[in-house]
Amino acid sequence: MNDFPNIDTRLANAEETPEIAGHFSIFTVPVLILFADGKEMLREARFVHVEEFKKKVSKIYEGFHHSWDQ
């Protein structure tokens, strides 16, 4: 996530905090969820292809990045 400096990251262990898993409807691990302006924009679970995930995040990030510049 170093390529996306304006994204804050958090890590939660679903076994240690099952209320988080319940709140976000997580039924398998790992799960990567990207939120923007409080809305879920992207969710990848179980078999996450890192390069594909990075491409998807990049598209979303660039869209928001342009709005930050204005």
The level of helicity is 25-40%
Structural class: alpha+beta
Number of strands: 2
Summarize model confidence as the mean pLDDT: 88
Distance between the termini: 23 Å
Provide tags for this entry.
70 residues, alpha+beta, two-stranded antiparallel sheet
Brief account:
It is built from two helices and two strands; from the N terminus they run αββα.
What does this structure look like?
This protein has 70 residues and is α+β, with helices and mostly antiparallel strands. The chain contains two helices and two strands. It has helices spanning 18-23, 50-69; strands at residues 31-36, 39-45. A two-stranded antiparallel ribbon has the order 1-2. Strand 1 (31-36) and strand 2 form a beta hairpin. It is globular, with a radius of gyration of 13 Å. The two termini are 23 Å apart. The model has no long low-confidence stretch (mean pLDDT 88).
List the helices and strands and how they pair.
Elements lengths: L17 H6 L7 E6 L2 E7 L4 H20 L1
